[in-house]
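Example record used in the benchmark description.
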Amino acid sequence: MSTAHPVARPSDRQIPSASPTSDYRAVEVSSDGAVVRGRLYIPDHPAPAVVVMAHGFSATIPMVMDRYAESFRDWGLVVLAFDHRSHGSSDGEPRGEINPWVRQCVRIRRSRWRSTGGH
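Model output (structure tokens):
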């Protein structure tokens, strides 16, 4: 029989503020020949859940996601935050591009749109 561990909630105080210098473990995973890097935030007690976080198309972990990850950790959750392939600390080419196929599709669509006079 397992014992459930409720999420630790700050009592009558504000949500703990996060600082970009908090403790985390650096993690690396291989993805199609590139190393994807992230941070693993672990609370001081057994956690009831894990949150996996990735940023939007042009952000990186230190831009703001780290502060959310630290807050979730301070509430008692394990958090894995990572930079997408070709973004931030992760490897991959071309840099800053989520999916080269998407970019090609956009180019084709724009070309067709222009050739039809915008119709």
